[in-house]
Amino acid sequence: MITEMLSSSSIGKTPLSRSNFSPSNGKPSRASFICCVRKNAESNGSSSGPLQLELGNQSSDENVPQMRSAIRKLFREAQQNILYLNKQRILAMEELDRVKREKRSLLDRIEQLERIKLMYTRKGCDKFSLSAELLLRIDSMVLTSLIGSKEASEFRWLVMDSIGSIADYFSEKMHKQDTELLVELRHFPRKSRKSGYHIIHICTEMAPVVSVGSLAPYVTGLSRALQRKGNLVEVILPKYASLNLNEVHGLREVEAEFHSYFNGQLHGNRIWTGVVCGIGVTFIEPLYYSAFFGCENIYGYSNDFERFTYFSRASLDYIIKAGKHPDVLHIHNWETSIVGPLFWDVFVNQGLGGTRIMLTCQSFESQCVEQPEKLALCGLDPYGLHCSDRLQDNNKSHLVNVLKAGVVYSNNVIIMSSMQTKGQIIHATSHGLEPTLTIHKDKLVVAPPGFDSSAWDPSVDMFLPQNYSADLKGKSVCKVSLQQHLGLQEKASIVLVGCIFSDISDIELENLKTLIWMASRRGVQFVFMGSGQTPGLNSTLEYFEEELKDENMRFLNKYDESLAHLVLAGSDIMLCPSFDGTVLQIPLKAMRYGAMPILLDFTDSKYGHSVDRDLEGTEFSRYINDTFSNMPLNQAIDELKNNPSKWDKKIVDAMTKDFSWDAKCCDIHISAYTAIKNL
Q1: Do 450 and 663 contact (CB within 8 A), yes or no?
Q2: In this structure, are 610 and 561 located in the same domain?
Q3: Least crowded by CB within 10 Å, which of 502, 568, 588, 667?
Q4: CA separation, residue 597 to residues 140, 183, 581 (Å)
Q5: Quick one: pLDDT at residue 269?
């Protein structure tokens, strides 16, 4: 580099050549002085351009020291250039590494998304999916008058009783037209009828196509569990404009339309069918009242009563038109509760004499209270129903209560709760329906929510760096991987506390601050993730993070399902605002992944100090009370550090418990179906 700089400067042109010596006397002539001029010099002393040497006329005596000084200066400048270039090279390498990391992170994210897609594809393309698609084709044959309702009913049971063999037989035939497919169905060998129920859900949510709260995972999880146990399950939904059609397999518009009664007239509806997670789904799209479900949100409009009353009536009209004879019509919350009085007052004599009604309530908080006259919109008699033992609201006697209609007119009412007993629900969380629930107490059944054990299983989880089971081998690898991802100190022996929540109150935030301040002094790490379903939650958490500024704490302001798997697997403890949360089912998943569920504020919980021995309580409530509910966070940390053998015994026991949809939840529902069919 020095040679290049010298050759590029004026020093190589005249000052050091032979012509500098005088031919007349043989002595050196007056030499030119050397001066270093740096172009594009920077304030830090480095140079970004070549150096130039300027020569002036000096005597030979003066020239030598100045030449030496100039050369030394030249070397210093060259060294500075070398240092500067090295610094730039290092910065460039760091930037290249950063780009590589970002690229690697992006590729990892793409891989995660592919895994999610594969997971749902695997769920959506099994034998149940093909059978569900075949059932929807049978519906199409009825709607287009290709077959009658009696033959359609025989075909439906044929499909249900021969799911495995019929899926293999028709896997290459589903592209055929309905007429050709009908020939194949008629030639398929009949088998003896198995025991099982035909259940149709009339509901407003279903995961993953339209999901707002706890109803969506419940409908999908329960339906898949019921199918695995030999039942025929279908779902009817409104065709929302915001529907996630990417999650619907084989979506198709049925050519035939059907009419539904509303506001004194018959109105046309367009039918769409598809398969979601192996379940046949029918989507109803109103033609005249197209604005009912063309809005952005699912709930929260002034005409919600009209919207969901129309859908409820249209669902019943569709069932009659399609020639279906289900054992159970399963309705949900107030939005489809009007199906109860409609069924018994209008539809029961239209070929549905063997059908029974089941209502599920995720909670009694939302009930829909309206003017009695509005009942006439869907063909009900306002005067006959506006009385205390039917639809009259218990608190506002001049109005009717739609959720009360569901309770009164259903054969059974399932209440979803992990922790509460029937008595606690009636007297503490009925929101004004206590008189009605007391009268109909024998109808009430409490069932715990479950979770999808096929998607949330650490032994086969595709999102984990290493799978593990109840022996816990591999869980420490997941913890270190989570720490690395979050930029926390990477050490498996450090206690790591996770928290994934859908909502959090101001009081819970204050409790959280106290816990973090106490635990962080002990070197405990925290990771928090919000579900993103509550407006303003992320901004609240960002403010919280800024306020605490704890190096052992990380906030993830966006719900990421693939990362949620790693949070569960990498955490020793999962803080839970409630054990009764039905949206994310975090306590259930935590136990499955070997993380101890601990209440955020156990002192404020009605489950915190007493073990509920009420036989009406769920198996989960009894287990959680006996094992975890009386333990605050500090005590859990002490036990983990000081008595690891006792801790591991609890964790291993919890991991072997089955609280999935296929377990107690499904069993309770089948028992309830059996009870009402025997009425």
Answers
A1: yes
A2: yes
A3: 667
A4: 48, 55, 12
A5: 96
Distance separating alpha carbons of residues 232 and 187, to the nearest angstrom: 22
* Same-domain status, 407 and 274: yes
Q: How far apart are CA 538 and CA 603, in angstroms?
A: 26
- The CA radius of gyration of the chain, in Å to the nearest whole number, is 36
Residue 195 has pLDDT above 80, yes or no: no
Do 412 and 316 share a structural domain?
yes
Rounded CA-CA distance 56/35 in Å is 8
Decide if 462 is inside a domain.
no
Contact 503, 535 (CB under 8 A): no
Question: Percentage of the chain with pLDDT > 70?
Answer: 81
How many C-beta atoms lie closer than 10 Å to residue 349's C-beta? 9
Backbone angles phi, psi at 235, to 5 degrees: -135, 140
Q: Report how far residue 296's alpha carbon sits from residue 398's, in angstroms, rounded to the nearest whole number.
A: 32
15 band by pLDDT with thresholds 50, 70 and 90: very low
Which of 194, 225, 241 represents a domain boundary (last residue)?
194
pTM here is 0.78
Tell me the pLDDT tens digit for each residue of 512-550: 777 777 777 788 899 988 765 555 555 666 666 666 666
Supply angle C-alpha 666, 667, 672, rounded to 5: 95
What range defines the domain where residue 59 resides?
A: 2-94
Does residue 351 lie within any of the structural domains?
yes
Average pLDDT over residues 214-237: 94
Residue 624: how many other CB atoms lie within 10 Å:
24
503 part of a folded domain? yes
- Is the domain of 135 the same as that of 230? no
For the segment 238-243, the average pLDDT, to the nearest whole number, is: 94
Rounded to whole angstroms, the Cα distance separating 30 from 498 reads: 82
Overall average pLDDT of the 462-480 stretch: 92
Q: Two tokens at 370?
A: 């309206």
180 part of a folded domain:
yes
Conformational region of residue 538, where left means phi above 0, alpha means psi within -120 to 50, and beta covers everything else: alpha
Q: Supply the CATH number for residue 482's domain.
A: 3.40.50.2000
Same domain, 266 and 376: yes
Average pLDDT, the chain: 83
pLDDT for the residue numbered 49: 45
Number of domains in the chain: 4
Instruction: Give the residue from 194, 213, 245 where a domain finishes.
Output: 194
Q: What is the tens place of the pLDDT at every residue in 20-29?
A: 434 444 444 4
